[in-house]
Amino acid sequence: MPVPAHLEFFIDPSRCIGCQACVQACSECDTHRGESMIHLEYVDRSSSVQTVPVVCMHCEQPTCAEVCPADAIKRTADGVVQSARKPRCIACGNCVVACPFGVPELYLDQQIMMKCDMCYDRSSAGKRPMCTTVCPSQALFFGTREQILALRPQSTPVNRFRFGDQTITTRVSMMAPKGVARDVIVDVVAAMDERARGRTVRLPVLGADAADPFADVEV
Amino acid sequence: MATIPVDDLEITRAFGPHLSASIRGPASGEPDKLVKTHCCFCGQQCGIQLKVRNNEVIGFEPWEEFPFNRGMLCPKGVKRYLQGSHPDRLLTAVRRDPAAPGGFRAMPYAEAIALAAREIARLQKEHGPGAVGVLGGASLTTEKTYLLGKFARVCLKTPYIDYNGRLCMVSAGAANKKAFGIDRTTNPWSDMVGTEVIWVAGSNVAECSPITTNYIWQAREMGAKVIVQDPRITPVARTCDLYLPVKPGRDAALFAGVLQIMIEKGWVDRDFIDAHTVGFDKVEEYCAQWTPARTAEVTGVPERSLRAAAEMWGTAKSSFLFHARGIEHHSNGVQNSLGTINLVLASGRIGKPKCGYGTIVGQANGQGGREHGQKCDQLPGWRDISNPEHRKYIASVWGVEEASIPGPGVDAYEMFRKIDAGEIKGLISICFNPKISLPDNEFIARALEKLEFYVAIDFFLNDSARHADLILPGSLQEEDEGTVTQVEGRVIKINEAVQCPGEAKRDWVIIQDLAAALGRPHGFTFGSAREIFEELRVASKGGVADYSGITYEKIEQQMGVFWPCYSHDPETGAPTPDHPGTPRLFEPGSYNPVAKGAGPFYFPDGRARFNVADYRAPVDDASEDYPLFLTTGRVVSQFLSGTQTRRIGPLVKQYPEPRIEMHPRLAEKLGIADKEWATCETRRGEITLRAMVVTTIRPDTVFVPYHWPGDKSANRLTVAAQDPISKIPQYKVCGCRVRKAAGPPPYAATHEAQQ
């Protein structure tokens, strides 16, 4: 059974609390060989508790599949980009280097690339992917667009991304805040001061004066 | 004889903690059955389905229908199944024997029970019934806690029973009793969504009660402002609307200061105060001294933030406030808790939809475990052991003379002082690991060594049980059935997934076997957990925590029942077999058996009590010699003293060892870089851990998580100061100093991360 088209995957990093329930649950999925396919990293723990969960974005035209010399990566008709197929994958790592989102990972001991397959064994059997089911902050959400719009009035799903000249449309959406992003607090000292100070995040990855990464994206 | 039999490391090599052997692979296979039950760890009690094959728990499947968590789990819940079939599991009784490998040798169960009974009887015969004490725990089912309380009072006739909730819920409980006359969160968590303001006081929700996060986030989506009061920027504080970086131990001052601004601005509900409360005048008088300037100076929170908090809280139409150990683990813990209640009562926002107050319980049965008689001053149904009427009723349920029930005992820490003084010579413990979890735990270790006879009931050999003469093999949560009461006051059902392996027994069976071996089986002949629950229903009837209308069937049908749930209408006495329970307390016009219709609160006049919530500086506060604040707490992948979670490989990998969290300003001053070894020292002792240099903690404060034993144990440092009312220890603050360590500590070369 294909994954129904009306069921979508949404990621809201502003909700993530870094608990790793998703990572721990991912490794429980029957097709994941006891490994977790999710990357959950601190952006920079020295200056923030912010964490970012990364699952496969399931691109319409998956770069990983396009660069695969062995044709080991398939996108099924329901829009799910599958993990590498065992007999074909030559563990060359092309997909790892090419993926604009940094998702695929090479397991040298097993000589295969594995990545998030949206828990295909579950999602193709009418269940939600394991990570979205357990996520205690629902930073990872699986459901209909109507559900997410009703539940998250303060943000908008975005599923087109631009990398240089390449525009990528994905089956998975990121929740981007409507209007101005919420201020975040990164240093206790700023909150201890009598004089109110800017609390905008100034992390190396996203300078405060950087252009809005979603500015030209049609939504 | 309770010194450890052989070198500690030798015991560790034999009994662990080792890491769970089975990391699940694709070949785990199909389960024989899925058992709907709940997680064995924190007080959220998430619904979960355990996959069982051949009497082994082999995995989990989310339980999406259970209304509280709808399938959500934290990493502990996901990996909790790995505690079963563990190589460290005690499959027989073991007896202290310095000649045996690891210091303990296996002993047949029946002989072990006979030995325990003989020693207990000897000590009681020689020194009186009070020579033997009992320690219980709030991760046990309510049935077990009920039986344990009854065992102490009826079988042993000792006043000395207390439990590890003493380190957890007692400040909140005492404050609730003083202010409301009932001790329970007022509203279901679903009431949070749609409220205007949520105030999180001293609760690292993301790590200690992760499922609550989604409720907060969902409330925020619907427009709620979030206030977080914490010395650290926790994951929920990171994006909150107002962050109050309070200095450890200053919470009562903060609440008084905010209330003072609300009073000045007229942001209090005078109509509600006049109609439904008493005592506001004294609180008003007290708060006058807490000007914004003084409050800012004492609490370390700037005036602008105090004013913002007062405005946000004071002008809202609906609100939810909850607190946890951050404000409760203090020698001023009851006052801190009362301070939050004053803010709630002054706002008049209680007893209504979207208007709630709650305290987040830490343990699986943090709520139920404090209601039915394992506390030193309590009898079932939240009854008072010093109240003649209450004693008479319970004596009639138990079929004993009222005079035979001992009076109040002492709190768990005081029991150790009595052990140290030689008054208590024998100890029976279950679900309690005081050598890791009590403050100033070098003292606890010395006290354990003085015991003449110590028998522990446990499934793994925990650190305290290393001092025991005998360990009886108890049951894991999934090996028994029973009820627990979770954070909202919802009574839920734990179901048996597998049977005890080897000679291990369900805990209540062990307690009854001891009673039988002592020759006093009267009242300890239950054939099942259900039979215990049926007696508990009767025993709780007419008490404030009335469970009389709850049945296992009703719990299953309703997916939990909020107490009080009456078998007979408290007003008319008519049978109410369909009573649904009480999800929301204090609703206008509600009837309760204490107020008898006079009002919604549980006092004869039906009114809530304001209490002057007096600020007192912490004991052993930061000083010239010890200039920093030490505060302690949890990490998301570990639970309590780690007896279970330090044995689960993936959870250990997530956060292997404790670290000392400090701000870069402090680290720079001390010349300590991230990941370097640093030594934290207090008046009790010192420990050396790696530094974790982060901007998310106050520069005058360091944080150490407490889940580890021995030379990594944060409670070597903490102070045994206790709240005068609740007797909760002051874990959350003491003076300390930190220096760069000369090199790695000895344990780094000898112990694995989790040991």
Distance between the termini of chain A: 30 Å
What is the helix content of chain A?
A: 10-25%
* Beta strands of chain B, count: 28
Please name the CATH topology of the largest domain in chain B: Rossmann fold
Number of domains of chain B: 4
Shape of chain A: globular
For the largest beta-sheet of chain A, the strand count, sense and barrel status come to: 4 strands, mixed
Task: Describe the 3D structure.
The complex is a heterodimer of chains A (219) and B (755). Chain A has 219 residues and is an alpha+beta fold. Chain A has seven helices and eight strands; from the N terminus they run E-H-E-E-H-H-E-E-H-H-E-H-E-E-H. In chain A, the strands form three sheets. Chain A has a four-stranded mixed β-sheet with strand order 6-1-8-7. Chain A has a two-stranded antiparallel ribbon with strand order 2-3. Chain A is globular, with a radius of gyration of 18 Å. Chain A starts with 7 loop residues before the first strand and ends in a 27-residue tail after the last helix. Chain B has 755 residues and is an alpha/beta fold. Chain B has four domains: 19-83, Phosphorylase Kinase, domain 1; 93-140 and 157-167 and 371-475 and 499-528, 3-Layer(aba) Sandwich (Rossmann fold), CATH 3.40.50.740; 170-359, Dimethylsulfoxide Reductase, domain 2; 628-750, Beta Barrel (Barwin-like endoglucanases), CATH 2.40.40. Chain B contains 24 helices and 28 strands. In chain B, helix 5 (170-180) crosses helix 14. The two termini of chain B are 25 Å apart. The chains are: A alpha+beta (219), B alpha/beta (755).
